Amino acid sequence: MSKPVSKPESDPAVRTRALESILVEKGLLDPKALDALVDIYEHKVGPRNGAKVVARAWVDPEYKKRLLSDATTAIKELGFSGLQGEDMVVVENTPEVHNLVVCTLCSCYPWPTLGLPPVWYKSAPYRARAVSDPRGVLKEFGTTLSENVEVRVWDTTAELRYLVLPERPADTENLTEQQLADLVTRDSMIGVTTLGSSAPTSASKH
Amino acid sequence: MEVEAQSPLLCKGLPIGPDSDVKFDEPWEARAFAIIVRLAQDGYFEWSEWVECFSREVAAETAVEASGGVPRPYYEQWLGAAEKLLIARGVTNEAQLRARRFAAGSVGPTNVMK
């Protein structure tokens, strides 16, 4: 990413310090609370949370049902909840439907389950192309779907965040829930990839 | 924002790469991020208010990129939106920010952008 040379007075580090000091002085902000938040986002929140949700849905049909009908509550069951009171929606990939998540306006993202978004998610080309050319975007991630798979693109909003429930890879019947969670990648939960190299290329049973 | 059919953004590759997973390049980015999340958590504004303000900033930079220019980096867009929102809310104003930047810049090492 290119970074223009900043003039000293517009150095964003200085601007951030200035803004923070005003807020602290006005009693609107506690610097310790900021430290704690930064720590949470740098170390504690990440795609592993979402992976646990996905693995639970794979092994527990009742949980999956709850997850697909009321994701916010079902995700809270595992201890992950939103910081801004936003609602979660989980969309399920099937042999017929593939889901892809974008935020065309800015970079809204399911933080509690996926952490902070990757650079490409926030980029203008992704925000523009995910809607106009989702298959092209998928191809760039090495994901090729059969022509008869319907691609659904979900545009995130301030109030609604989407998480993709990827298809469970084949031949994973003997894995534990934890082992299954280890298979789940962040990108598969955004919907830019699928899981497992055993993607059905030939006619597979439905 | 409506994306125009001929937007060059549509032919641009995605910045997929090893840097994709870096959360914050600089400490100030984490600070600026956390300031907004914290104020929203405390109910100082609705998250949707923030998104509206931030989206405007992002849209402006997207337009810059769509016309072949170099947009400001993501967290600078974030910071710009944060300043605008807090000015709009009457928490601070341009003059106070300028004065405070001057003071903040003169204490401690500044975080020089690469």
Task: Note down, in words, how this protein is organized.
- The complex is a heterodimer of chains A (206) and B (114).
- Chain A has helices at 12-25, 31-44, 47-59, 61-69, 71-77, 111-114, 119-122, 124-132, 134-140, 177-183, 186-190, and strands spanning 87-92, 97-102, 150-155, 160-165.
- In chain A, helix 3 (47-59) crosses helix 4.
- In chain A, 44% of the residues are buried.
- Chain A has a single domain, classed as Nitrile hydratase alpha /Thiocyanate hydrolase gamma (Nitrile Hydratase, Chain A), CATH 3.90.330.
- With 206 residues, chain A is an alpha/beta fold.
- Chain A has a two-stranded parallel sheet with strand order 1-4. A two-stranded parallel sheet of chain A has the order 2-3.
- Chain A contains eleven helices and four strands, in the order αααααββααααββαα.
- Mean pLDDT of chain A is 88; it is low at 5-9 and 197-206.
- In chain B, helix 1 packs parallel to helix 3 (74-88) and helix 2 crosses helix 3.
- Chain B has a domain at 31-103.
- The longest helix of chain B has 20 residues, at 47-66.
- In chain B, 55% of the residues lie in helices and 0% in strands.
- The two termini of chain B are 31 Å apart.
- Chain B has helices spanning 27-41, 47-66, 74-88, 94-106.
- Residues 108-114 of chain B have low confidence and may be disordered.
- By secondary structure, chain B is an all-alpha fold.
What's the number of domains of chain A? 1
What does the main sheet of chain A amount to? 2 strands, parallel
CATH class wording of chain A? Alpha Beta
Provide the residue-averaged pLDDT of chain A: 88
- Strand line-up in the sheet with most strands of chain A: 1-4
Question: Summed up, what is this model?
Answer:
The complex is a heterodimer of chains A (206) and B (114). Chain A is of the alpha/beta class and 206 residues long.
